Structures are given as C-alpha cells and as structure tokens.
Amino acid sequence: MKTTPGTAAVQEPKAGGLRGFFDNGKRQRILVIVTFMILPMILLFMFTYLPFFKMIQFSFYDRNYLSEGTFVGLKNYINVFKRDDCFKTLWVSVFYMGGAVVQLALALFFASLMVFKVKGSNLYKACLFFPYLICGIAVGFIFKFFYAHGYVLDNILMALGVAEENIPLWLQNTKINNICLAATSVWRYTGQNMVMFMGAMMSVDNSLYEACALDGANNWQKFRYIILPSIKTIIVLNLILSISGSLCAFEPPYVITNGTMGTGTYFVIMNRIAHENQKVGLACAMAIVLLAIIILCTVGQKLFFKYAFKASDDGSDPKPRLRNERYAAKKAAGKAGA
Amino acid sequence: MKKALSLILALTMVLSLLTACGGKKKEAPEVNLPKIDEIDLGTDYQDITATIKVLTNRTDIIDTVYARYAEEFHQLYPNITVVYEGITDYEESLNLRLPNGDWGDICFIPTTVAKSAMGDYFAVLGDMDTLDQRYQFIPDKSFDGKVYGIANGGNVEGVAYNKAVFEAAGYTSDQDKLDADPSLKPLPATPEAFLQCLQDIKDKTDAIPLYTNFAAKWPMGAWDAYIAVAALGDPDFRNYKIVHTANPFSKRSDGNGPYAVYNILYESVARGLVEKDPMSSDWEGCKGMINRGEIGCMVLGSWAVQQFREAGDRPEDVAYMPFPITVTNSEGTRVTAAGGNYSYAINKMADENQQLASMVYLKWLLEESTIFQDENCIPALKSAPMPDFLDDFAGIELLSNAAAPEGKEDEFDKVNLLSEVGINNDDYPDCTIVEHAILKDKTIDEIMDEWNQKWTSAQEELEMEILF
After folding, report:
1. What's the rounded Cα separation, in Å, for the pair B42 and B359?
2. Which has more confidence, B468 or B8?
3. What span, in angstroms and rounded, lies between the C-alpha atoms of A115 and B206?
4. Where is B146: in which H helix or E strand?
5. ipTM of this complex > 0.85?
6. Which helix (H) or strand (E) holds B296?
7. Which CATH class is domain B156-339?
8. Average pLDDT, whole number, for chain B?
C-alpha cells in the first residue's frame, strides 16, 4: 500500500504531488466511482459470484463436504444424464407449472376485481396477501395437517356430506398428490402476484378509463382493451418467474411428503444426493444442469411471447406508434381523397 | 490529502476483510493429554481454569437437564465452567463447522465423519484395548487402535410394543400367564410369527398393529439398524463383511438377514397391517397412541421407550421386545443388536487447557452424572446396571457391531455412499419399500435386486474383493 502514493508522486511531479494527481476532473470521477463501487462489488463477488464459481469447480470433482476430492472431468455431468431419477423429476415440475398458470389467472382475476372499487377491498387484499408472509416451511406444516387423513380437509368434506370412503388419501394417491402439493404453492403465491398486478393496473392512466367509460365500455371491455394491454409486460414477467420457480419447487414436497410417493422434485433429489449421500460434486453438476434448463425455458418463453404478440410488442410504448400509424393512415386517406 | 487517506483506509479495510476470509486452516496445538481412564475424578486437574463449550443436538433439554449437569460439575470443579450450545440441524451444521476447528470443545461425532477422518478433528481419548474393557461400544469410534469418541450410552435394537394390546391378541412374555392359559402364545420370535401376531392384533383388537411413522421419514431409516446383528447374529457384518459380500440383500435359505428385515416391513404394509394412510402418520401423536393402546407396536430403538412411557397415563403397558428374528451365537445363545448413541469427542484444535478440562468433564458425565438414568438407556460404563425395560431380553446376549479390521474402516462408508443404498444415512431407500408395498408395483424381491445391483456396481467401482 505504501508504494501507491509514492509512485503517483513520481509519475506526476509537476502537478503538486498526490493532490494534483487527483485534481484532474476525470481522475476524480474515476476515484469517486471506484470508492463507491468497491464495497458493494466485493460483497457481490464474495457472496454471489465466488460461491457460484466454486460450485462450477466442485461439479468437476468427486468430493464430499469434508474431503478435498479428486478431479473427474465431466463424469458428474454424464451421470446426471445417465441417472433415471434426475430427469424424471422434471415431469413433477409440470404440475407446478400448471399450478403457476392457475395462480396467475387467479391473481389477475382478483386484481381486476379489486381495481374496480369493491367494498372492503383492503380486507380482501390483506387476506389474499397474508399467505405470502408465512415462511415456506410453515406453509408446508400447515398443509401437512390440512391434507392428513382424518384432519382438516377430510373433516370439511365430511361436514359437507361427502362419505368418508369417497374421500381419497390426498398425499398417498399418486394421481392427485402432486396436484395437492402444487395447490399449496398456488395458495402461497397468488396474493403476491395479485399485488404486483394491482400495482401495474393502478399505474394505468386514469383518463383512459374515463375515455372508454364515455365510449360506453363495460368492465369486461375495460379489462380486455385497457388493462390487459397495459400490464402485459408484468404478466409476462410473472409468468417467467413462476415457471422458473416451478422448476425449483422444493419446500412443499420436502416438508409435506419428503419427496416420497412420486412427489420428489429436482431440488428434493439434489438435496438427497448432496446431503444424505454426500455426493457434492454430482449435486453441483445437477444444479448447473438445472440452471441450463431454466435459461432454456426462459429464452423459450421470451421467444414465444415475442412471436405470439409480435404486432404490439415491438416498441416499448405502443401509444406513440399507434398515433403515428393513425396519422399516417389519415394522411394517406387525405392524399387519396385529394 | 484527506481523500488519499480515506482511499488508503478503504483499501486497507477491504484487504483485511479479504485476508480474514482467506484464513488458513488452524493447526492443531501440541498437547500432552492423559488417557481418559487414567484421570482421577475430583482430585486431578483441580487447578485448571477453563470455560468449555459442548455442542449438542438435544435442544429440548439444554436449559434444564444439561444445565443441571453443568451446575453439578461446577460444584466439583469450581474453576471449570461448562456451556451447552444446542443445534437444531446438528449434522448439517457440524459438517460445515468441524473443518475450521473453531467450533467449541466437546461435540457428538456426526455420522458423516469417516472413521479415518476422526483423527483430523478429535483428540485421542485412550487406547482401544483398555477403554474397551471399561466402556460400551468403544469399537464404533476407534481407528487404528486409538479411541476418538465414547458413546453417550446406548440402545437395544428391538420392538416397542403395548403389552395390553399384545395380550388382547393372545401374546405375552409373562411365563406365569403362559402356563395358566394354553391359548396364549409367547412373543413372536420369527418373521412369520410376527406377521401372524400383527394379523391377530388387527383381527382381535381395534389397535393399529404396526405404526410405520412413514411421514417422519427417519423412522424408516431406523429399520437399517436391524439388518446386521439382529438379523444375522454376526457383529462383523455391518462394518466389514457386507462390503465384501456378493448380493447381501438377497433372500437367504435360513430366512434371516437383511432381506428378512425389509420383508417384514414390506409384508406388513402390503397386508394392510399398518396405519391406513402412512403419509399422514404423526410422530408426536404416536407416542400417546401406543401408551393408550391404540398402536400395537413400533420398530424403533429402545431410546423411544422412555418417550412413549411419558406420553400418557399407562406407562406400565409400554414394553420392549427383541426383534422377531432368532439368531444364535456359536454357543447357541440367542443374540440381538445393541448399539451406541452419538459419541462424545473432544476438539483437538483447542488449547491444551481446554482439552484437559473437556476430558475431565467428559469422564464425569459418563461415569458419575445421572445422564443414563435420566435417558433410560444402556450406560456407558460396562459395570453400571442395565435399565429395567430390558426384562424381555433375559437370556439374550446383546452384541454390538464390531469395528472393521485395521485399514478397512472406511470401506463401508465408501460403498454405502457410492451405491446410494444409504444404510443408516439415507432414509429414502427404506421409504421406497413402503411406497412399492402401497402401490403394489414392485415386489420386495425386485426392490432387493435393485439394491443388490447398486451395491455390486459400487463394489466393482471401488474394487472391493468378494470374500463372502
């Protein structure tokens, strides 16, 4: 450290030592940028990138938590693709993806209801948002008892007159147990999505509502032609987040069923391989393969939306473009008339 | 100048932050420790002043029972203060904390620490040959003739059952009642008799014959404890022979062995002799249920007996019986399995003073505290009296797993982890037995064949010789 001021003084003897060196406006700007950036950058590097690079490094080793391990090249990656339990679990994620779609639809529905003045909407909002505030493990325990044979759900159904022998074993029946688990994450995240949608809906210019009210639009038309186009970006964002979230589903199957009876998701299997069987290298490779899958899914979705909504998604703000088109059309019509 | 100073200050802080993170592994200090059997409690080492930290997984009793031990010990050694730290996810945390050497003074050795690695973290407590005479379960945590850990007492591997339910179904261990009533049968001692007994409970009582505790997952892993001594009577099987056995999970002609153990689990589920929905079984609730006679039996280590007795009004009904496979030793005496709990070990990275104080406390805890009466388990000292729930074990020899021969101590761990059969460490394979029994999509033979294949390919990859 001692050498830095010295060398600076040597390099810039005429400008009056260190002070002169930093008097230069450009250098000062760099200095300010560096001093403000260095701590956050170091924290970001240490807690985000370093562990990530370490994980990539581990994925090429055969190691457990305590040993240093030996380099095995791509063997871990080959094993990920060779094992039959890794990719089978992606099928389980499909249930959570289905859940994500239902969840977004529900959130959109409730958000649209709340946006048109509803009595006691704050109470409804609070009730719907509340599950998001409970931590995932606690949600798991709530639903463990909710679905348990002879507990909450069974009692409600029996009170409604369903015969006991017609009630399935929610967590044991392999036809429905994944749906039951996905439903818990719908319950948890619907409120959060709803709040995001409402935020977007409220930022829609009020004059648009007034204008279409004057044109005699009903609520459905308001939703279809004003709300939906205005919040499209946030819907797509939520969809992408929910789909990558469903690939990473962990808490419901881990807490409620321990991944038994065909409910093990990719993360549950990865956790078992890393912790119970101490194959840290293999688990790191699985994590990186999953990262690749998530990137593929996200890019795929982006492309899909790009082509599906191509007409209106080109410009960041459709309004000026529409106006321009209208103007051009008018002009063309004027010309034609003349 | 101010700017330059602050820049230098910022950079130094950053650098010191980095050096603090990239710290090297701590070196173990040179220490001169006595052997634990040589310490004279109450007189030796009275001059040591230290505060020692004990890590434990028993978060439920650190402020009550464990605090009482620390206090009692403090009376004997006023200069030594003992502090307990409870850790909820014990194994996981210890895996991360052990390597840096800064975790405390006494801990339970996590199951994931391989025998050959114990010397990297823990101090030597004494020689295996001498300590084996004095304490139970010493071979478990010995390597190369040196002892690194002493078990916190131990347990028998049998079956917890409700006497009243068994009697209602026509089974008892009471010789007088058996003599008086010819319709009564003795407790089942073979897999077939056990399954018949479960069937009788189902037919004659309202109790659930066998409660799996499937939802809690770990009680499934508990079945692994029975495959060696309890199923074969061979103390060398679990740590050594299984590694060198061809297809250890195959059905045997004598009807014993690992296959027989897992078959009991499979058959009892397949025949509907367990709770209706194992997925919603409840560990906390089952304690009261077996106490009240709503459950016939549970296959768990004897440590559970105390909890079952405390959970209701009828502690006298909760009893413990040997696992229903009859195997004998060379003299023809029936044997069954016992094993040590978590083992205490001392941090070798700590200062000499700390290590000495830890060793004194450890010796006091194992030999003079009331810990084993409180937990109702087999005491660490071989000379101490056995707990009363072992009444049904009269005439049965208790054997624990022997250590693998020198130099082969970590073979089992290697094959077990590589094969992912997960004996005693991964509960999921045991869970699949119940799954397939419920779904009826695989027979027990098919499951055991799969395990054999995994085991064999791990044996081949690690070049284990097949000797048995």
Report:
1. 13
2. B468
3. 56
4. strand B146-147
5. no
6. strand B295-298
7. alpha beta
8. 88
> Pick from B21, B112, B280: which is nearest to A148 by CB?
B280
Rounded to an integer, what distance in angstroms lies between the CA atom of residue A117 and that of residue A63? 59
Nearest to A276 among B14, B17, B422 (CB): B422
Unique residue bearing structure tokens 């082509």: A307
| Contacts of residue A161, Cβ cutoff 8 Å, sequence gap at least 6 | none
Measured CA to CA, the distance from residue B86 to residue B304 in angstroms comes to 21
Question: Left (φ > 0), alpha (ψ -120 to 50) or beta: where does A161 sit?
Answer: left
* A121 vs B358: CA distance, rounded Å: 62
The 10s digit of each residue's pLDDT in A213-234 is 888 888 888 888 888 888 888 9
Top residue of A75, A149, A178, A260 to mutate, by most chain B CBs within 10 Å, is A260
Question: Rounded distance, CA A193 to CA A234, Å?
Answer: 10
Residue of A nearest to B2 (CA): A19
Classify residue B60 by its DSSP letter. Answer: T
How many Cβ atoms are within 10 Å of B410's Cβ, its own excluded?
Answer: 15
The whole-number average pLDDT for the span A166-177 is 89
Q: Do the strands B185-186 and B171-172 form a parallel or antiparallel pair, or are they unpaired?
A: parallel
CB atoms near residue B49 (< 10 Å): 11
Closest approach of A275 to chain B, Cα-based (Å): 8
The CATH number of domain A77-139+188-313, selected from 3.30.390.30, 3.10.129.10, 1.10.3720.10, 1.10.1040.50: 1.10.3720.10
Burial of B412 (0-12, 13-18, 19+ CB in 10 A): buried
Pick the residue from chain A with its C-alpha nearest to B281. A148
Sort B212 into a burial class: Cβ within 10 Å, 0-12 / 13-18 / 19+.
buried
Determine contact, residues A96/A249, Cβ cutoff 8 Å: yes
Name chain B contacts of A277, Cβ cutoff 8 Å: 417, 420, 422, 425-426
Length of chain B: 468
- Would you list the DSSP string of A236-287? HHHHHHHHHHHHT--HHIIIIITTTTTT--HHHHHHIIIIIS--HHHHHHHH
Is the model's pLDDT at B41 over the cut of 70? Answer: yes
* Residue of B116, B274, B279 best to disrupt the A interface, most CBs of A under 10 A: B279
Q: Where are the beta strands (DSSP E) in B181-294?
A: 185-186, 208-210
Q: Which two tokens stand for residue B333?
A: 């005496």
Interface contact flag, B14 A275, Cβ < 8 Å? no
For residues B121-158, b (16+ Cβ closer than 10 Å) or e, as one string? bbbbbbebeebbebbbbbbbbbbeebbbbbbbbbbbbb
Mean pLDDT (whole number) for B15-35: 62
Domain definitions of chain B by residue range:
28-153+341-377, 156-339
Q: Kindly give the residue spans of alpha helices, DSSP state H, lying in chain A.
A: 3-11, 17-23, 25-44, 50-58, 75-82, 84-115, 121-133, 136-147, 152-159, 177-202, 206-214, 219-222, 228-230, 232-247, 251-252, 266-271, 280-308, 310-313, 318-337
What is the Cα–Cα distance from B142 to B228, expressed in whole angstroms? 19
Q: Which of B363, B351, B343 is nearest to B73 (CA)?
A: B363
CATH number corresponding to B28-153+341-377: 3.40.190.10
What is the mean pLDDT of the segment spanning B268-292? Answer: 92
Task: Give this prediction's pTM.
Answer: 0.77
The domain limits of chain A are 77-139+188-313
Angle between helices B283-292 and B303-310 (to 10 degrees): 70
Burial of B43 (C-beta count, 10 Å sphere; 0-12/13-18/19+): exposed
Cβ contacts (< 8 Å) between A39 and chain B: which residues?
A: 10, 14
Does A38 sit within 8 Å of B10, measured CB to CB? Answer: yes
Q: What is the DSSP string of B110-140?
A: PTTS-GGGHHHHB---EEHHHHHHHBTTGGG
